[in-house]
Design brief:
Elements: H1 20-36, H2 39-46, H3 54-63, H4 82-94, H5 101-113, H6 121-132, E1 137-139, E2 159-164, E3 171-175, E4 179-184, E5 189-192, E6 202-206, E7 212-217, H7 221-257, E8 259-260, E9 263-264, H8 269-298, H9 303-328, H10 340-351, H11 357-367
Parallel strand pairs: 1-3
Antiparallel strand pairs: 2-6, 3-4, 4-7, 5-6, 8-9
Length: about 375
């Protein structure tokens, strides 16, 4: 009798379609943002001293229980997956909503989840507080840091620049070579910066003299931070998709109404071609973003590749869509009163967030063994 050789298990096919539950979640989030984060209020808040909207965050995070989407139910969360989180980010991207969902409910939360909260009561308690939506956290790394460029502070006392949403966070998650610490934001010195994207504030965090709670040792810290940044980069692609979709829809609607030579400017063939090409790129970006979200949700071994591919592609599409939106709106697109500049700034700042496109392309080359000679 011939011995039978074991056949490798077939890899699950990525599911890029939205489920009925995801569509319902999208409708609920979009309805709330339409009423509380319209263009006029977002523009006014971006010019104020408090760019983040605490009332909007309470409505999203606590009111709709979205802050704990990625936290298991036994820890006080919703026990959802990265697919649902991606849907929320698509909608916050469409509205350039000034809320810390990406930084607190994804990056910081995923970093803590990597520590095994079921075995540590301190981590579990902190996750429960974040899941409630009444507290937020920020991972103290430069917002430009990608999954492949994790740098730890030598000691718990130090300075880190360009930390996203640190100025509005209640808890700072500080990765050091000695371990991962939770520091009360009130104990740190936080100096707000003036970012390109006023809807996502950056700050310099100085930790000299701040006391913190040790959550994990030095051995577990790099892996936890890498997981948080990987999830953040993968789901940032969905936010970039939302930005691109709004820009495309707004541009198409405007060119149907704006007339020149007694006909809509959108009827000119040259503009039709530009918008058709942009539509193709947005559809491709949706496929890449959904693939990354599905890979994160399923724990696929292709997760690093899916995330790198999504970031390398979606970042460029978001910028192109925003630039086309500004240009095809003509004179009004150049004004401060029109919200197009908010989307361009969000797209441009996100292009270098959580790893540049060049870093992600290098990661792709490494993962598929296409390294440069």
């Amino acid at each position: 009798m011939k011995a039978q050789t074991a056949q490798p298990a077939e890899e699950a096919t990525p599911d890029l379609l939205y489920s009925e539950a995801e569509d319902d979640l999208r409708a609920a989030v979009r309805a709330l943002l339409a009423g509380r984060a319209d263009a006029a209020s977002t523009l006014a808040r971006a010019e104020s001293d408090v760019p983040c909207d605490p009332e909007l965050w309470r409505a999203l995070g606590a009111g709709m229980d979205l802050a704990g989407l990625l936290v298991p139910e036994e820890l006080g969360g919703q026990g959802a997956s990265h697919r649902e989180a991606a849907v929320v980010l698509e909608e916050t991207g469409r509205a350039v909503a000034p809320v810390p969902f990406l930084t607190s409910s994804v990056i910081a939360t995923e970093t803590l989840m990597a520590l095994g909260p079921e075995k540590d009561t301190q981590v579990a308690a902190l996750l429960g507080e974040l899941a409630s939506g009444h507290r937020t956290a920020a991972l103290v790394v430069p917002f430009a840091s990608g999954p492949g460029s994790v740098r730890l502070l030598a000691t718990p006392a130090g300075t880190v620049s360009a930390v996203a949403d640190a100025a509005t966070a209640d808890v700072l998650i500080v990765p050091t070579e000695q371990g991962l610490y939770a520091v009360d934001a009130a104990d740190a010195t936080i100096a707000p910066l003036t970012p390109l994207d006023l809807t996502r504030p950056l700050a310099t965090v100085t930790l000299d003299g701040a006391s913190g709670t040790l959550l994990a040792g030095g051995d577990a810290t790099p892996g936890a931070v890498r997981r948080g940044l990987l999830a953040g980069a993968g789901l940032l692609a969905s936010e970039q998709l939302g930005v691109a979709e709004w820009c495309l829809a707004e541009t198409v609607a405007y060119t149907r109404e704006r007339k020149q030579f007694n006909r809509p400017v959108g009827s000119f063939q040259a503009l039709k071609h530009r918008m058709a090409q942009l539509w193709l790129e947005v559809v491709s970006a949706r496929a890449a973003a959904r693939n990354a979200a599905d890979a994160l949700a399923s724990g696929s071994p292709e997760m690093p590749l899916a995330v790198a591919l999504a970031q390398a592609y979606c970042a460029r599409v978001a910028v192109r869509a925003a630039e086309e939106c500004v240009q095809l709106h003509g004179g009004i697109g150049m004004t401060w009163e029109h919200p197009a500049h908010l989307y361009l700034k969000r797209a441009k700042s996100s292009q270098i967030a959580l790893g540049s496109a060049g870093e992600h392309r290098s990661a792709i080359a490494e993962l598929v063994d296409l390294r440069a000679p």
